[in-house]
Amino acid sequence: MSKLSQNKPNPVLKKYKLVFLGEQSVGKTSMITRFMYDSFDTHYQATIGIDFLSKTVYCKDKTIRLQLWDTAGQERFRSLIPSYIRDSQVAVVVYDITNLPSFEQTSKWIEDVRNERGENVLVVLVGNKVDLESMRQVPTEMAENLAKDLNTLFIETSAKCGYNVRQLFKRIGDSLPDLDTELRAHESLQEVSLRKQHNEKLFGEKSKLM
Ligand code: GDP
Ligand code: MG
Fold first, then answer.
1. Whose CA is nearest to atom 14 of ligand 1?
2. How far is residue 25's CA from residue 27's CA, in Å, rounded to a whole number?
3. Which of 5, 19, 60, 101 is the most interior residue, by most CB within 10 Å?
4. How far is the CA of 16 from the centre of ligand 1 (A)?
5. pLDDT at 196 over 70
């Protein structure tokens, strides 16, 4: 696979691993579903138990491939999380704007990311479920301040309505470095195959836990 890609005349799309983090029920799976299929399905959870989903994102000045890794069930098993974060380039840390404790936990999730990846990672803080404005417990400004303090991007979304979901991924694409040289793309392909093995281990665990 890597040899073939080296022979291609066009540069290989740069791949980025993007992990979704945050407490259970904040809407991580729904956000992936909205982005991938432009749908909102409360029964989707069961079918997403695969390694990751890939999507090509077309940005202003580049085209990239994002691998979206969901954390179905692992939220409760924090000891599994570092290995999941380890080789990621993007961490999307989600909270539910109607659930203050889910926001309070985001600092811990971001700390986990920084412990594993330092500054070599793009972190996005996402306040989901803005369609439930009347039940809001987390003021936008509070989250903006946290994002500033922790040097992350910030956006509010509704996976249910589709509000700002595309925008979220577009902002991620725009903030990632440009296409690297073919050599780097070649390296990233090797990384992906390693991740896959690693992921089998992780998700083998998960199937027991779920
Ligand atoms: P996860 O545990 O973080 O993956 O959360 P899910 O995607 O499974 O969503 C948890 C619950 O919140 C489900 O009942 C979803 O239908 C609901 N949900 C997710 N996103 C939204 C949203 O934007 N608005 C509303 N009102 N409900 C949402
Ligand atoms: Mg989920």
1. 42
2. 5
3. 19
4. 25
5. no
State if residue 88 touches ligand 1 by the CB under 6 angstroms criterion: no
Residue whose CA is at the smallest distance from ligand 1 atom 6: 27
pTM of the model: 0.80
Given the structure tokens 């996402």, which residue do they identify? Answer: 126
Contact 40, 160 (CB under 8 A): yes
Residue with more model confidence, 121 or 62: 121
**Distance in angstroms (rounded) separating the CA atoms of residues 52 and 42:** 19
Q: 188: Cβ below 6 Å to ligand 1? A: no
Residue with the two structure tokens 């570092």? 82
- Round the average pLDDT of the chain to a whole number and report it: 80
Question: Phi and psi for 142 in degrees, rounded to 5?
Answer: -60, -45
Give the integer Cα–Cα distance in Å for 67 and 35: 12
CB of 57 closer than 8 Å to CB of 63: yes
Helix 165-175 with 28-37: angle, nearest 10 deg: 90
User: Which atom, in ligand 1's list, is nearest to the CA of 71?
Assistant: 4
Two structure tokens written together for 72: 């179905």
User: Shortest CA distance to 31 belongs to which of 19, 13, 17, 16?
Assistant: 19
Q: Which residue(s) pair with 125 in the sheet?
A: 93, 154
Render pLDDT for 140-193 as a digit per residue (tens, 0 to 9).
999 999 999 999 999 999 999 999 999 999 999 999 875 443 334 444 444 443
